[in-house]
Amino acid sequence: MINNRAMIFGLVSCGLLAVLTSCSSPTVKYGDATSAKPISTDFGSNDLQQTVNTMVNSMLVFPPIVELTKTRRPIIEVAKVNNKTMQHIDTQSITDSIRTRLLRSGKFRFTDRSTDGQTIEEIKAQQESGLNDQNSATQFGQQYSAEFLLVSNLSEIKQKNEDVVDVYYKVTMSLKNLKTGILEWSDEQEIRKVLER
Amino acid sequence: MKKILLPALSAMSLLLVQGCWTSVMDVDGSADGTSTVNFKNSPVDIKVLDTRSRFINGLMMVNLELESGYSNPYRLEYKFSWYDSAGMEIDPARSAWVPFYLNGRETKTIQGVAPNPSAKAFKIKFREANRH
């Protein structure tokens, strides 16, 4: 009986020790990139994924946009997100994700102003380096222009007391017709994160 | 003996379980409107009231209406997966878990739009962290 007790006690102690020591030593492991588990009230990866998802879905099924994309793929330029929060957020990654999702839907085409410098350099090299067959070299002034501009704002309202930090994020996006100036589509995504001590 | 063993084992299992997600149920559906609900472990008190799908501009759109049978708020996460006509999953790594909060006895709708026109079927996975 005493032996049994000692054995069970030993097993339980070993188990607890194993769990506790595994918690105390630093480890590196791969995590789930799609996880929704919040770590803090800061704008996190899942907030970005939720925003992208909501905005893209909303735009794709909005009746005037459905009509617009029925027979052709309009060209869009994505403007940088206006970050009105107090946080440093890589807003480029929001617009990159939105562009990727919209492109992969097969309903839109995109221009990309952020790579204009490299494009000019490449076209110049094709024309002036003497390496390229000039019949196949790309000429300046032939690129298509965007018909629409996707503009976005990200804002936050933060409230806190001793026990609670409450952060409300709002992302607003609009699709502006560059020719007419009309906003063809707009939507908002709201996210609330609460930290309780 | 049991007095010592039980709390010790409970404490150990609590440490191991903390932070783990538990699959709750999957809802499978296809373009013809049929859908099935598969509970993963013991059935939870969440009812799927209605599942609808339609195509908008070639993209499959799904509406799922859920009702909580719990009197307290219930936190879930869900994730859409989309499948083409051959049953192959489309962009499997792209779909993110979405936090979902049901107040006591509340009815709420989940909506998803397929990433491209090749989607002809869907699966919505639900998981929970803990009950409140």
Model description:
The complex is a heterodimer of chains A (197) and B (132). Chain A starts with a helix and ends with a strand. In chain A, helix 2 packs parallel to helix 4. Chain A is an alpha/beta fold and 197 residues long. Chain A has a domain of 127 residues: THUMP superfamily (THUMP fold), CATH 3.30.2300.10. Chain B is mainly β and 132 residues long. In chain B, 12% of the residues lie in helices and 51% in strands. Chain B contains one helix and nine strands. In chain B, a hairpin with a 5-residue loop joins strand 5 and strand 6. Chain B is globular, with a radius of gyration of 18 Å. Chain B starts with a helix and ends with a strand. Chains A and B meet through helix 1 and helix 2 of A and helix 1 and strand 8 of B.
Summarize the structure.
The complex is a heterodimer of chains A (197) and B (132). By secondary structure, chain A is α/β, with parallel strands linked by helices.
Topology (elements, then pairings):
The complex is a heterodimer of chains A (197) and B (132).
Chain A (H helix, E strand, L loop, with lengths): L1 H23 L20 H17 L1 H6 L6 E4 L3 E2 L7 H14 L4 E3 L4 H13 L19 E13 L3 E14 L5 E14 L1
Parallel strand pairs in A: 1-3, 1-4, 2-4
Antiparallel strand pairs in A: 4-5, 5-6
Helix pairs in contact in A: 2-4
Chain B lengths: L1 H16 L4 E9 L4 E5 L6 E11 L2 E10 L5 E10 L5 E2 L7 E5 L4 E7 L7 E8 L4
Antiparallel strand pairs in B: 1-2, 1-9, 3-4, 4-8, 5-6, 5-7, 5-9
